[in-house]
Amino acid sequence: MSAPGVASVGSASGETRAVGGAFATRLAPALVVALSVAAFLGLWQFVVKAGLIAEQDLPAMTTTFSELWTMMHTREFWTAFGQTVRGWALGLGIATALAVPTGILLGSSQFAQRAFRIPVEFLRPIPSAALIPLLFLTLGTTLQSEVFLATFGAFWPLLVQTIYGVRDVDPVALDTARSFGVGRFERLYRIKLPSSVPYIATGLRISSAVALILAFTAELFMGTPGLGHIMNVAESFGLTVQVYALALATGFLGLAIYVLFAALERRALRWHPSQRAEAP
Amino acid sequence: MSRRAYQSTAIAAELAVPLAILAAWQWWTVQAADPKFPRLSTILVEFRELWLFSQFELHVVPSLIRIGAGFGIAVVVGIVLGIPLGLSRWARIAAMPHIEWWRAMPPPALLPISVILLNSIENRQKIAFIAFFCLFPILLNTIDGVRGIDPATFETAQSYGVRGFERIRRVVLPAALPQIFAGMRTSLSLAVIMMVLTEYFSSTSGVGYVLLISKNTLQLAPMWAAIVLIGLLGYLLNLLLILVERRMLAWHRGWRAATAQ
Question: What is the mean pLDDT of each run of 10 residues along chain B (261 residues)?
Fold first, then answer.
């Protein structure tokens, strides 16, 4: 009987502490963040209006945001936005479908990993941007080149993270399963895969950003339809305000993807707080 | 299989697989006879003629200068900004939205803006662009490294009267250095990518410019040679940084080995 009473007293005092602490832990930081963002936007407006930077080089903050607002009421903007998201999603999806099984395979077998060490080490650092002219000449200005580029870029971080994840399985858990007669596939499915999920989630966060960068790069350089393409057109017509507004839109898209995948990563890590290290 | 037999098979596989891939590439390109995919041997000949060393000074040196300057600026600015941000919670809270925004921004989206804003397609624009995007991994890792310092280290330093700049130089910087190097490795591979992007977008020299020109003139062999060079450049620069890291962090690994015993 006394236990719930103690618990309720504890929670009551906890609440008063939470109210007192809410200002320091939640409200004040939120205020600082809001002020800091406002200060940046104000500074942007000021340097342009005061003539420190010419308006044709940097449009005022208000001009850029209202241009973005106008754009958001046009069908072309949302078509391009959707095309960029499509290239990103296909690239990330295919990269995941390829990299996770390959990573599990290479991570589970030390022999396979050694056999493919040199090709992986040499292919991984090749900047995907170097492949743009080649794709332009082979696949042309198509969705395939955009998806190929995004897939190629997103593949490597995911592969490396998956390999590290599978290799970092608790050996005691594996031995325990083995001594209980758990089969090879069941060990993979029940032990290796779940314990490498946090690593894969980190890989997904990195790869989701890379895939967006490369989808956009394909559009900007090869003319594949999407936000990058309309930015290139706007730049060649000298529509500076549009270029800035499109960069803002792309930034918001990047931020949304980052927030989404960082949240996913936190969820994946929650049940396994010991494995927070990002593989080098 | 005995352990020794296994080891030698593993080493053989480690060498055989890459060689098999190269042989398959050569065989396939000979079979296909597609001008878009020149033979491996053609690429290697082209590679030697272009980069060893007739065009080295003309195009490789400018690219290396841009990578070096951009990366160097990013290291200095990243550490100088990262240490106070790591030490002060409020500064961090105020700066974080800006850091998160700019690092989530896809770099190519700022390429046209960098040209417009800086009125330049020369080194000024290229180095600024490379430095800007190389900054974030170093900055974030410096912040994390400084935050991760054991409070007891600070207390010890305080009780010995180590404060001010001396505290930063002797306590904070060495303790955060391993993590700063982790950020530098990410940044250096970014620097190569940013170099290719800026030069491919608009330039008059550099490895990225060679890519652009060979695309425009439909010369596939120099294009492949440039791709191989860029891959090699990324690999070698990373190797160089690892060597520097080993030298500078020798005390760190030694210390860890000593405590592990």
Answer: 75 81 83 77 78 75 93 96 92 92 92 88 90 94 90 86 84 89 90 91 87 85 84 86 86 58 38
pTM (predicted TM-score):
0.84
CB contacts < 8 A (A, B): 160
Which among B211, B225, B229 is positioned nearest to B39, based on CA atoms? Answer: B225
Domains and their CATH numbers in chain B: 61-206+234-249 (1.10.3720.10)
Cα-Cα end-to-end distance for chain B = 33
Among the residues of chain B, which ranges form H helices? 3-32, 40-49, 61-87, 89-104, 111-118, 123-147, 151-159, 165-167, 173-201, 207-216, 220-248, 250-260
**CB burial string B138-175: b at 16+ within 10 A, e below:** bbbbbbbbbeebeeeebeebeeeeeeeeebbeebbbeb
What is the maximum alpha-carbon separation in chain B?
Answer: 74
| Cβ–Cβ gap B218/A137 under 8 Å | yes
Distance CA(B110)–CA(B198), nearest Å, equals: 10
For chain A positions 112-171, those within 8 Å of chain B (CB to CB) are: 114-119, 121-123, 125-134, 136-138
Q: Give the separation between CA B217 and CA B175, rounded to whole angstroms.
A: 52
- Could you tell me the CATH superfamily of domain A61-270? MetI-like (1.10.3720.10)
Question: Which token pair is A52?
Answer: 């420190």
